[in-house]
Amino acid sequence: MLLRFLHLSSSGLLSSEQVSLHRTTVQTYFHSGILMTDFSPPPSPDTITVEASASTGTIQRRARGFLALFFVAIGLYTLKGFLPALLWGCVFAISIWPLYRRAELRFGRSDWLPMVFTLAVALIFLVPVSLVGVKVADEARSALEWIDDVRNNGIPMPEWVPHLPFLSAQATNWWQNHMTSPQRLSHLLHSVDVGHGMQMTKQVGSQLARRGTLFAFSLLTLFFLLKDGDSVIRKCLLGSQRLFGEQGESLAKQMISSVHGTLAGLVLVGLGEGAIMGIVYMATGAPQPLLFAMVTAVAAMIPFLAWPTVGLVALLLLAKSSMIGAIVVSAIGSVVIFIADHFIRPALIGGSTKMPFLWVLLGILGGAETWGLLGLFLGPAIMAALHLLWTLWTEVNPRKGVYAEDKGS
């Protein structure tokens, strides 16, 4: 409009009244801030003009929401094979974040600090796995030698079989007829399907390769989460506040606290049980005490799962004619597992989130059944969020004496 006005006024095609009217119009457009829109070219006949309205804005918001959900869903589907690795990386980062922050405050922010912590986490897992692998290889060689000896000489009867308090004669007769005869044992060993064993070995190797790859991606995720942790935390808090308000931040903090409590209540308590039982295994002369101590520590990370390991060691001691050692392992193992599972573990996990023991137990067992080892951390975190929601939903307003959901009424 401004260019048209200047052209007409300079060419003398407008009268003085028209010039005054156009000048007033241009000034009005200038002060209202819409003058720049008049410099755009006129719409072509094919241009579709959409008028803004409340209904149009609602449709656009819904369309953006559906589009965002679509991309989130397609992204999760694309990464479904690596979601466990990403979740494990998040669990590692949440677990060691307080220690990492203290190290960062002491040594300063640097690029090598996340690498050091990532390598430390890798060694925590790789060193025990390597030791167990070496022990398993040695035991496999010993097992092959034992099988060859059994084929030639049979299995000698333990000294405690004739001294059983009941059915000793029947047990002795059965052992002499079935276990000490090389011919019977050779027939039993030849009946084992070697092809099935080879197939199982291939499956185990494939699973080890896959889980090793996922572990590598977990470490990679951990490195970047530590490196950019402050930015990730800030954006997560901002996103939770925008989506869920103040309660979103409370839920996030509750779930993080549950992960910290789970680390202390499952991993550290399990390692403590394994260390104590390892000393007991060595003192009683149990076979492979270091290997069984590691197995006990891993099994003890799940409540009540350390019992089979302790029972197996007791049976092995009993097979070695060490009745006293079997009784000592069973008694001390029962006391240690009972105290850890009923007192120490609930206090560490539930204490950080104020959850009852039943919620903690259901979260651990249900998470382990649904998600595997990852569920040991996800289960309590989910139950912590549900417990917080239940608490907020049913809490009483002390000023009005009504429940939380009735505050607005």
TrEMBL record:
Subcellular location as annotated: Membrane
Principal location listed in the UniProt entry: membrane
Any GO CC annotation of this UniProt entry: membrane
InterPro entries: AI-2E-like (IPR002549)
Keyword Membrane: yes
Pfam families xref list: AI-2E_transport
Membrane topology reported for the UniProt record: Multi-pass membrane protein
Positions of transmembrane segments: 63-79, 112-134, 208-226, 263-284, 290-317, 324-345, 357-390
Record keywords: Membrane, Transmembrane, Transmembrane helix
PANTHER family recorded: BLR8064 PROTEIN, TRANSMEMBRANE PROTEIN
Similarity-based family: Belongs to the autoinducer-2 exporter (AI-2E) (TC 2.A.86) family.
Protein name as annotated: Permease
